[in-house]
Automatic annotation (TrEMBL):
Protein name, as recorded: Heat shock protein, Hsp 20 family
Biased composition (Basic and acidic residues): 1-14
Record family assignment: Belongs to the small heat shock protein (HSP20) family.
Organism, scientific name: Desulfonema magnum
UniProt domain SHSP: residue ranges: 22-134
Chain segments carrying region Disordered: 1-24
Keywords: Stress response
Source domain of life: Bacteria
Amino acid sequence: MTESKDIQVKEKQEVNASAEQTKPGPTFVPVADIFETELEITLLADMPGVKPEDLDIDLRENTLTLAGEVEPPEGAEETDIFREYQTGRYFRQFTLSEVIDQSKIDAKLNDGVLRLTLPKVEKAAPRKIMVKAG
């Protein structure tokens, strides 16, 4: 018996702002995947069009904030004829647990995908305890 899975297109999800914004335009929630190994947690966030210099990653009081901006691709002399690709800002926050070694977080942005490596503190990582004859 085979199972078929429907392919579903995910569109950018716009944030419902609870506060007044200082810039016009939409703010989107980047789609994220989180997975873990014994030694680290990895977070992938989809942020197409964001350049490293337009990405801000902030860590305060165990809250990890991702913010990035995408500028419209057309030049000053060009005008839109048809547009499906939406530009604007990306914003998402995550609460980090005490198992993350916050001083060793690593971030890489490649082809519009942000990869954050969140190493676990040494005491949280599993380890084998040797038993000595005594």
